[in-house]
Write a structure and sequence with these properties.
The chain is of the alpha/beta class. The chain has a 12-stranded mixed sheet with strand order 9-8-24-23-22-10-21-20-11-19-12-13, sandwiched between helices. Strand 23 and strand 24 (649-653) form a beta hairpin. Helix 10 (341-348) packs across helix 15 (451-461). The longest helix has 24 residues, at 513-536. The protein is built from 23 helices and 24 strands.
């Protein structure tokens, strides 16, 4: 087929990759052409032989020899079928057809449809009415270029010239030719690692594609497009969003392990799993992310008992000083149902020790004393040998001892003012301090004057501004999420696992929604804090990917206005902190425009209403697919636009299965799993 591109020869990339006989089929010619649209003339016979031409099919238009060797026509236009178009003589042909039917009706005594409509046309007329027009959008131009001394296939998203329409032939790409188009990546100096994600699928109806063996053209993406960038998984529930996410996660893990093997830093992945579908096997996939291996996957969940080394408790030790931020977040969220002002005060204060600031540390310790007293009142189990360390000057100690009738203080430092209080005495000490303050004792007034103490005391006393509040009673629902055995903040442990390049699944399908929400925010806050600390030190933060479900609840337009919101901070700061983010939702309109505008990769499955599709149509060329996105409810059938791809590709996403699990395991140097789940090398 080299005559289609004169002067290039059989070795040209355009010919070998796109126009060769085994890569494309002639289906017609260009009937009309401008810079944005082409009308293609085709025939029923040619369409049949090509296995049909569904809407959104890719077509190629290439110039014939126009007997002008000085004109460079070594370009191929990429077209996409948008619909049909009338031909100039079509009205006349319809009139001929109508007249033949009228004649048949008047010349036959039997007026039944089979007699009138099935009248045999003469071959000449039948052939003429078999021509139809296809309305096609011009997506751009394929051409050959030289980069770093190598010939490459390049693509421009426009047309730099066009010739008389009679000079163009139109072909339908098939097989490897179609795969080349669907998998095309723009030349870049960024790292490229191609992986298969699915096969080209033009329409919900696939009978002709399968019959003509055109339903298996693979689609490859650059998996590095998803690392360090935002990815949107959009579609209704059960349309395959999670399946796509698992493919991205497994393939990212493989990249991470190859980086590790070559001396680079691995990539951590954090998955918030509200339904438990990433941590546990399901009937859809038959396997799970955790199957990649206990060495590589950590699951944090409520109720973990330590019997599985890779499954860790998500519970928090409410009495642990190094978990005080997580405790504060959980309590603040739980207290939010109380409209009293102390709730806001508690959420806004800090209860951490401040190295180098004796005063701030002293007041933080005093506030924690009151908080631990409230927890004990709410019947939280204290850790074994639990003691509260606090600074109380000697004269005030004696007043408390006199009021209690016993000495609850244990020396705990070089100064006699530094004491420890055993769990059994904490409530009584706090209560005595409050009583002395209310009685006007100057030492008690000084001890409780700081805002930290004032923000906690209403929780302990259940009184605020001389009126009753729920206070410590609000803490009762938090008891199931407390474990006195937890040694460190799960958020810190999770971050350390991410630094090791592990996949961390936070299984949130067990637990009250307010608690799991607060835990997710606490974990994310600590992640941002740690990444920011590395960033401001002048170093590159480690690469970490974050997977989020129900994104419309996290990135709504109203919420996006609040810079203090942890999810908003994640969305705004992710790029500079080397955090990639994959977010899934069925409500495109529910995600703030700023988040979508900075999204690099789009995976769009079925959406069921015009509101969401209209919002989607604001981005790239998704408006062309609006009707099809609403109509097609096939699971895994998506429209895909990635950072490296210059146009949208309709794809049937592959299924996440054992083969992909084993691909990830092999990248880590592990043996493959047999279908029964037992580790074994498969040959």
């Amino acid at each position: 087929m080299t005559e289609l591109i004169p002067g290039v020869g059989a070795g040209s990339l355009l010919n070998s990759l796109l126009l060769a006989d085994d890569r494309s089929m002639r289906i017609g010619a260009v009937y009309r052409l401008d810079y944005g649209e082409a009308i293609v003339l085709t025939h029923d016979r040619w369409k049949f032989e090509a296995g049909g031409i569904p809407q959104f099919s890719f077509l190629l238009a290439t110039a014939q020899d126009i007997n002008a060797p000085q004109v460079d026509d070594d370009e191929v236009l990429l077209l996409r079928v948008e619909g049909t178009s009338p031909l100039s003589m079509e009205t006349d042909l319809h009139a001929v057809r109508e007249e033949s039917l009228r004649t048949a009706l008047s010349s036959n005594q039997d007026p039944s449809p089979s007699v009138v409509l099935d009248v045999e046309m003469d071959p000449f007329t039948k052939n003429r009415v078999s021509f139809t027009g296809l309305r096609c959008k011009i997506l751009g131009t394929f051409y050959e270029d030289h980069i770093d001394g190598q010939k490459v296939l390049d693509f421009g998203a426009d047309v730099d010239n066009f010739y008389a329409t009679s000079t163009y032939r139109v072909l339908k790409p098939v097989g490897e030719g179609l795969s080349t188009i669907a998998s095309y990546l723009k030349p870049t100096d960024r790292p490229v690692e191609r992986v298969r994600i699915g096969a080209v699928r033009y329409s919900a109806t696939r009978r002709r594609a399968k019959a003509s063996k055109q339903a298996a053209s693979g689609v490859e993406v650059n998996i590095r497009d998803f690392i360090g960038h935002k990815t949107a998984l959009l579609g209704m529930t059960r349309m395959g969003k999670s399946n796509t996410a698992k493919i991205i996660i497994a393939r990212t893990f493989a990249v991470s392990e190859r980086q590790r093997a070559s001396g680079g830093k691995p990539i951590g992945q954090l998955i918030f799993d509200p339904q438990g579908e990433y941590a546990n096997p399901n009937t859809q996939d038959g396997t799970e992310i955790a199957a990649i291996g206990e060495k590589h996957v950590r699951i944090f969940k409520f109720g973990a008992d330590g019997s599985q080394p890779h499954v860790k408790p998500l519970s928090i030790n409410f009495f642990s000083e190094n978990q005080i931020d997580a405790v504060q977040n959980l309590i603040s969220d739980q207290l939010s149902t109380d409209e009293s002002g102390y709730v806001k005060d508690f959420a806004g204060a800090s209860y951490r020790d401040v190295p180098g600031d004796h005063s701030a540390t002293t007041h933080a310790q005093r506030a924690r004393l009151a908080l631990y007293g409230a927890l004990l009142r709410a019947n939280f189990d204290e850790p074994a040998n639990f003691r509260v360390r606090v600074s109380i000057k000697g004269t005030f100690q004696q007043k408390i001892v006199n009021g209690l009738g016993k000495n609850p203080f244990i020396p705990a430092g070089r100064s006699s003012n530094i004491v420890a209080i055993a769990a059994a005495n904490v409530e009584a000490v706090v209560e005595q301090i409050v009583e002395l303050r209310e009685a006007g004792d100057s030492d008690a007034v000084e001890f409780t004057k700081n805002v930290r103490w004032k923000s906690v005391e209403p929780i302990f006393t259940a009184k605020s501004a001389n009126r009753s509040v729920r206070g410590w009673k609000n803490l009762n629902p938090l008891r199931p999420f407390h474990s006195p055995l937890t040694m460190s903040d799960p958020a810190i442990e999770i971050y350390e696992e991410l630094l090791e390049g592990r996949i961390v699944i936070v299984d949130l399908h067990v637990g009250a929604a307010p608690i799991t929400k607060a835990l997710s925010e606490s974990i994310t806050a600590r992640l941002l804090e740690q990444q920011t600390s590395v960033f401001v030190s002048g170093q590159d933060p480690p690469a970490i990917q974050v997977m989020l479900e129900e994104a419309h609840n996290l990135f709504s337009s109203d919420r996006y206005k609040d810079d203090r919101d942890i999810w908003v901070k994640l969305a705004k700061e992710a790029s500079k902190l080397n955090l990639g983010m994959t977010y899934a939702t069925q409500e495109v309109s529910g995600v703030a425009h700023q988040v979508k505008a900075n999204t690099a990769n789009w995976v769009v499955a079925h959406l069921n209403n015009t509101t969401e599709v209209r919002e989607l149509a604001k981005f790239y060329d998704f408006g062309s697919y609006s009707d099809a996105i609403i109509a097609s409810e096939d699971r895994g059938y998506v429209r895909l636009k990635t950072l490296s791809s210059p146009y949208i590709v309709p794809v049937q996403i592959d299924r996440y299965d054992l083969e992909l699990v084993n691909e990830a395991r092999r990248a880590a140097g592990d043996s493959a799993l047999l279908p029964n789940g037992h580790g074994s090398v498969l040959f």
